[in-house]
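Lab notebook, design round three. We kept the backbone fixed and only want residue identities now. Task for the bench partner: fill in a sequence for the structure below.
Input structure tokens:
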């Protein structure tokens, strides 16, 4: 180009620009699509001269405004080979605002106006502006066909041969590999998450694009929700659907509309559906109302796609203006355009509530290994590069896991395309260890000339950060400077598109190629820009939950920003950041250290599962081993992940962090959507001890990937895979892998819908797992025949201890061998015999087959199987269908099966007739300890006692037998058996046959029978009493709840005389509790061990039973005189000694008299108790009268008129009667009558009248009557509300009671008043008065009483309020003959006592010299009277 031409002005400059662009028309076309995304490159322009076409395109760019034109000029100068002189003129003339107003070249002016506006876009006609015109159906159909054709043609021209959603002329845009799609069968829950209940993602059945729409649904809203994490290709798939429709593949739809919520959020005005379709997408040529009417009639052939539902902003209210979400909601619910198909894409998380629960949900799970390989093969056209890229991916698992995300796979391929030609094998992938460095290499690779302008990159990062902070992903030309737009276009960092906000309102919008790129550039700005300080930087280092939190204000778009900041904190990124920061390495290092410090603080906190994953990503990006170790050690022992999606890259990152952990860890994935190839990320993770996948609907692909990982986990002890859809193919992979994991202790395959053969295949691996303790196969619908096969496995496998099957439950419990080295090296002389060694090595098996629909023939098979097996600890066949015959067979086989503890045949349809068969069948089983049958509760349980050789060793057994020889014959323990036949509907007619069936059980020793809850009635009770002697020595008989009358109950007392074994009869009449028991001591002896076979005849029993009293306890019974008379007459023949305990609500005086009158006729009675029985105030006198009527009574004790006890003496016992009436409200009026009755008793030892209401008057009356009452022991009158008057009267009464030897009175808190007697007249008496609070007027009475009590030799006064003067007066007034009299004053005085007048007092008794005394504190004063 001639330099002189460059000086000719704008016209020549325009010509130079046209000639330059004519050399690269493809580049110009690409820029036209970038800056004018809605333009149509009309094929008719191809006939024009190349320069004319360039002029036409430049005019279209120029009319868009200065910002677009300046950005275009900057792109020309950046990307094309422009001479320096021309570049200066272009930037100075057209690259600023001053040059924009210059005239166009003549060539531009000469073009016809019509040429400037050619294309498919028609002049806009608002669908709501014109009234509807009536047209015939043919015209309406014709308009609709034209619009549908226009719609398809527009889509064809929009996508052309490019991949959907691109807009960039790069070769990578030609690559498309569909990601893994899995359909979820659970319901959608928009409030709690994406899926309600357990996620059921179908594994192994990829959903193709054509299968995304459920064509079987004909009514209601037909909605498909496509869920996928960021970078999975949701937007790409949406555009791919548009392209496929434009190419005619989706022929089931006549019309397809694609909307992006990031653009719809810009709409602030109210929209109708027709305005949404025509104003914001594509307008019809004419009559939009007719076209819309056609779409309504054919709604089932209309598809509306809404991309980015998670980005939709909530409306300000229910009638919020511009609520596009309201239109979307009505479309989903079928109130708008009913019958249309709606598809929405979204990240997993909380979604708008407008989505119906029945919406079809499809998960995008990214790439697996084959898809990554396919993508690489398509990306690299050259064979050497293709092979090199695949080799790099094969050698680097971290990069391979990153490629599981389609967006990162594209970035990785772009970086490898840039790095492979200049690096040796293995070196390229070393530059891509993290996602951050992957993006860093991508930015370098996208630089056209290998030079990256740092200022432009940081400025563009500032724009990206500002957009993240404000929730903005779409930018206009006013938001970005033209040089930055050109920079973004040149480096493929920005995309452009047409934004329509209304009729006739459209402009070009710009966005970063992906949100993650926007986050990366923002992170670069934060780390390298001098405008950002350390504090501002650390505010962005946070952990986000995996759920997308939607707010009204703005979108949260910083998902990966903390991860990128952590990645840029790596030392590897420091040179790159220092270059961006223009050499300020210190500032970069400070920021990197600040990010690492924040991560250290987060690593020590208690975090939820989603935040743990985010933290692991951040820590892994830093490539700091110390930080990774801190994070790994801080993780909890139990690490749960519940109900949030996880990718293969997430698990790979977690595995990388766990490599820095020493302690084991438990990983529990519950309800987390996982990709089928995710287990491959756990390969080599030796820290996992428990690994559980719960409530997940994985399939064979997942099982196959898991089988490859399991053998590499050397510390894995527990494996759980529950709720999946694994078939025989997937199980076969796991069965092959399990023997390679000998350290496994627990395996669970719950709720996997496994077939019978698959279950059997799993069980076959048990012998190859030597440390296995539990295998859970529950919830897999196993049939009976398979269950019996499993029982055979349990019998033959030496490590199985328990097989438990109940409905859907199926569990094996195993006990690995615990043989130690010491046991193997025992001395020869200590080795056991062959039989003992076999017993030591034997095992006991517990078999529980509950509710498994077993029948009689199955019982026969099971018996034959168990007879060949080991000793059985427990056999539980409850809830089956064995009926009478099956129960009989099992009962007969019980003695041969060596069951140590329990056999349960409950709920098997046993009838009353079958009960007799079962009883006869077990009569020969001598190890049976208890049989409980209840037909009402469907209970049939056998309990067994261990055999002697199993219960104790030989030495202990011999010692036990030696101890038996030293016992009396009557003390030998007898074997015991408990037979409980409760609630079986037994009647009197069944007893004879029943007792015959029980007869065999009586030969084994004492028998406990329980017939409670039946219908024996009085007749049955009478008949049973006749049959009981034939049953031998029973230990107990329970007849509760059998509807017995009072007469029948009282008649049972006759059994005392007919049954030698009966010692205790307990009856609660109202509650119908009736229990007959034998000697409890004998039963306790039996509990110590088994009895040898010694004769124990009746001749050895008499001695001991004479020493053990029999007892009858009768409670809750109306004790009327006839009943008591009947009872006593029945007990008359009862052998003694006998204890009778009665209890009722109230016992009348007549009933009490009747009972007491019968006492003389019961010579064997040793005790009579009336417990919790209300008695009248007359009862003390009736009981007192008994002392004279029945000489055998040795003690009567009545307390509070509710508890009365009468003890009777035997002939050998000494005489002496005790009588107590405490708390019986006795007062003065009762004293004389009571004393009169007590005086009739010739041998009254003790009388207790404490806690009554005698008072001073009553006690005075009692003391007056005291000489007539022959008490030889003591009289207790405590707590009778007496005062000093009673104490003084006691002193005055002492002379008239010669047999009183001691009396003590305490009127303080103790309130005691006791008098002790002797059988003969007592020469000396003692009187103790405490806390009597005597007043001065009492001193003279006290002295008078002391003077008259000539036999009183000792008086003790304690705290009686007598001071020095009063004591002196007392001593002076006492007139006594010569003799010894002791006075003790134990009062604590505050001063020393002295008695100056004592000498005169003593001289009155003895004419002898007496000295003055000083009495110390707390000493006693003694006075001798000679």
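Proposed sequence:
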């Amino acid at each position: 180009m001639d330099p002189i031409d460059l000086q000719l002005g704008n016209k020549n400059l325009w010509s130079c620009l046209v000639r330059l662009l004519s050399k690269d028309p493809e580049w110009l076309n690409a820029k036209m699509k970038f800056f004018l995304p809605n333009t149509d490159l009309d094929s008719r322009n191809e006939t024009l001269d190349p320069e004319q076409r360039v002029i036409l395109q430049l005019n279209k760019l120029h009319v868009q405004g200065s910002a677009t034109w300046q950005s275009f000029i900057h792109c020309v100068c950046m990307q094309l080979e422009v001479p320096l002189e021309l570049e200066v003129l272009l930037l100075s003339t057209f690259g600023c605002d001053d040059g924009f107003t210059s005239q166009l070249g003549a060539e531009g002016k000469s073009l016809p106006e019509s040429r400037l506006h050619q294309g498919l876009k028609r002049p806009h006609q608002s669908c709501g502006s014109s009234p509807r015109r009536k047209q015939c159906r043919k015209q309406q159909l014709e308009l609709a066909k034209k619009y549908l054709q226009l719609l398809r043609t527009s889509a064809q021209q929009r996508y052309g041969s490019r991949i959907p959603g691109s807009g960039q002329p790069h070769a990578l845009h030609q690559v498309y590999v569909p990601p893994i799609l899995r359909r979820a069968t659970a319901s959608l829950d928009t409030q709690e998450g994406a899926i309600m209940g357990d996620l059921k993602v179908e594994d192994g059945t990829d959903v193709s694009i054509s299968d995304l729409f459920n064509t079987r649904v004909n009514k209601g809203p037909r909605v498909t929700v496509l869920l996928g994490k960021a970078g999975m290709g949701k937007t790409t798939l949406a555009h791919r659907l548009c392209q496929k429709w434009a190419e005619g593949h989706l022929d089931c739809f006549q019309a397809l509309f694609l909307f992006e919520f990031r653009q719809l959020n810009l709409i602030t005005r109210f929209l109708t559906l027709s305005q949404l379709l025509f104003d914001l997408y594509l307008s019809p040529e004419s009559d939009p109302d007719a076209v819309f009417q056609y779409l309504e009639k054919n709604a089932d052939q209309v598809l509306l796609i809404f991309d980015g539902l998670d980005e939709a902003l909530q409306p300000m209210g229910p009638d919020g203006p511009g609520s596009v979400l309201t239109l979307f909601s009505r479309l989903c619910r079928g109130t708008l355009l009913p019958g249309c198909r709606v598809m929405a894409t979204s990240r997993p998380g909380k979604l708008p509530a407008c989505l119906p629960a029945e919406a079809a949900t499809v998960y995008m799970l990214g790439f697996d290994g084959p898809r990554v390989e396919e993508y690489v093969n398509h990306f690299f056209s050259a064979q050497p590069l293709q092979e090199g890229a695949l080799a790099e991916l094969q050698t680097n698992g971290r990069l391979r896991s990153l490629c599981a995300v389609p967006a990162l796979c594209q970035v990785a391929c772009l970086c490898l395309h840039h790095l492979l030609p200049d690096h040796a094998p293995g070196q390229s992938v070393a530059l891509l260890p993290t996602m951050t460095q992957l993006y860093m290499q991508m930015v370098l690779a996208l630089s056209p000339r290998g030079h990256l302008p740092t200022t432009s990159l940081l400025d563009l990062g500032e724009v990206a950060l500002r957009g993240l902070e404000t929730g903005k992903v779409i930018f206009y030309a006013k938001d970005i400077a033209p040089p930055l737009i050109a920079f973004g276009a040149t480096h493929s960092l920005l995309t452009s598109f047409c934004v329509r906000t209304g009729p006739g309102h459209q402009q070009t919008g710009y966005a970063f190629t992906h949100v993650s790129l926007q986050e990366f550039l923002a992170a670069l700005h934060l780390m390298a820009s001098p405008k950002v300080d350390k504090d501002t930087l650390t505010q962005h280092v946070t952990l986000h939950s995996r759920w997308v939190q939607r707010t009204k204000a703005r979108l949260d778009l910083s998902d990966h920003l903390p991860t990128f900041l952590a990645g840029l904190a790596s030392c590897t990124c420091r040179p790159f950041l220092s270059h961006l920061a223009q050499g300020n390495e210190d500032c970069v290092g400070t920021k990197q250290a600040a990010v690492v410090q924040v991560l250290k603080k987060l690593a020590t906190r208690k975090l939820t599962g989603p935040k743990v994953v985010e933290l692991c990503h951040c820590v892994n990006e830093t490539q700091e081993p110390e930080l990774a170790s801190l994070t790994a050690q801080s993780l909890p022992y139990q690490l749960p992940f519940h109900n949030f999606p996880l990718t293969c890259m997430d698990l790979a990152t977690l595995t990388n962090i766990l490599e820095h952990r020493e302690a084991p860890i438990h990983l529990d994935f519950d309800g987390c959507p996982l990709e089928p190839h995710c287990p491959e990320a756990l390969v080599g993770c030796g820290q996992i001890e428990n690994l559980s996948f719960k409530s997940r609907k994985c399939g064979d692909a997942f099982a196959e990937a898991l089988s490859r990982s399991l053998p590499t986990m050397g510390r894995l002890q527990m494996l759980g895979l529950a709720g999946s859809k694994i078939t025989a193919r997937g199980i076969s992979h796991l069965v092959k892998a399990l023997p390679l994991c000998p350290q496994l202790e627990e395996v669970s395959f719950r709720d996997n819908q496994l077939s019978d053969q698959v279950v059997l295949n799993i069980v076959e691996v048990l012998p190859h797992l030597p440390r296995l303790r539990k295998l859970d196969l529950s919830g897999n619908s196993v049939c009976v025949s398979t269950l019996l096969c499993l029982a055979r496995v349990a019998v033959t496998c030496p490590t199985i201890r328990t097989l438990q099957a109940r409905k859907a439950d199926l569990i094996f419990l195993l006990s690995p061998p615990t043989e130690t080295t010491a046991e193997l090296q025992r001395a020869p002389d200590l080795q056991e015999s062959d039989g003992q060694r076999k017993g030591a090595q034997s095992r006991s098996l517990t078999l529980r087959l509950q509710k498994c629909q077993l029948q009689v023939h199955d019982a026969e098979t099971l018996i034959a199987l168990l007879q060949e097996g080991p000793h059985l600890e427990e056999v539980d066949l409850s809830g089956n269908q064995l009926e009478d015959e099956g129960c009989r067979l099992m009962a007969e086989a019980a003695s041969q099966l060596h069951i140590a503890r329990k056999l349960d045949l409950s709920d098997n349809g046993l009838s009353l007739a079958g009960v007799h068969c079962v009883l006869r069948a077990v009569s020969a089983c001598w190890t049976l300890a208890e049989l409980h049958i209840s037909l009402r509760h469907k209970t049939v349980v056998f309990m067994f006692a261990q055999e002697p050789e199993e219960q104790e060793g030989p030495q202990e057994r011999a010692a036990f037998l030696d101890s038996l020889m030293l016992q009396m014959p009557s003390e030998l323990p007898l074997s015991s058996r408990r037979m409980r036949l409760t609630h079986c509907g037994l009647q009197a007619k069944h007893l004879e046959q029943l007792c015959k069936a029980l007869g065999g059980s009586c030969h084994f020793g004492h028998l406990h029978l329980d017939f409670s809850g039946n219908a024996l009635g009085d007749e049955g009770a009478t008949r049973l009493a006749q049959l009981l002697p034939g049953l031998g020595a029973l230990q107990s008989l329970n007849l509760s709840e059998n509807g017995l009358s009072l007469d029948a109950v009282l008649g049972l007392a006759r059994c005392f005389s007919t049954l030698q074994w009966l010692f205790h009869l307990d009856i609660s009449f109202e509650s119908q509790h009736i229990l007959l028991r034998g000697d409890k001591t004998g039963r306790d002896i039996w509990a110590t061990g088994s009895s040898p076979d010694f004769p124990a005849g009746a001749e050895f029993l008499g001695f001991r039973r004479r020493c053990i009293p029999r007892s009858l306890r009768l409670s809750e019974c109306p004790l009327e005189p006839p009943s008591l008379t009947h009872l006593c007459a029945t007990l008359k023949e009862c052998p003694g000694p006998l204890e009778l305990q009665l209890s009722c609500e109230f016992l009348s005086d007549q009933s009490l008299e009747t009972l007491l009158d019968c006492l003389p006729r019961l010579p064997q009675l040793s005790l009579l108790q009336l417990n919790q029985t209300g008695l009248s105030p007359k009862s003390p006198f009736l009981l007192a009268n008994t002392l004279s009527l029945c000489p055998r009574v040795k003690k009567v004790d009545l307390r509070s008129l509710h508890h009365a006890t009468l003890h009777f003496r035997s002939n050998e016992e000494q005489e002496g009667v005790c009588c107590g009436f405490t708390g019986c409200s006795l007062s003065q009026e009762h004293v004389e009558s009571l004393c009169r009755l007590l005086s009739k008793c010739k041998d009254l030892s003790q009388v207790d009248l404490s806690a009554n209401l005698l008072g001073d008057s009553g006690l005075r009356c009692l003391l007056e009557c005291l000489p007539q009452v022959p008490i030889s022991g003591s009289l207790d009158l405590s707590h009778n509300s007496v005062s000093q008057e009673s104490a003084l009267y006691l002193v005055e009464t002492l002379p008239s009671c010669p047999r009183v030897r001691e009396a003590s009175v305490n009127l303080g808190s103790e309130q005691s008043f006791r008098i002790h007697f002797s059988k003969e007249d007592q020469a000396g008496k003692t009187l103790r008065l405490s806390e009597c609070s005597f007043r001065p007027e009492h001193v003279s009475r006290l002295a008078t009483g002391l003077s008259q009590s000539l036999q009183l030799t000792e008086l003790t006064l304690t705290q009686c309020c007598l001071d020095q003067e009063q004591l002196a007066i007392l001593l002076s007034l006492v007139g006594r003959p010569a003799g010894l009299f002791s006075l003790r004053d134990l009062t604590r005085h505050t001063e020393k006592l002295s008695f100056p007048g004592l000498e005169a007092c003593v001289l009155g008794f003895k004419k002898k010299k007496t000295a003055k005394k000083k009495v110390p504190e707390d000493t006693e004063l003694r006075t001798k009277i000679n």
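Keep this in mind before ordering anything: The chain has a mean pLDDT of 80.
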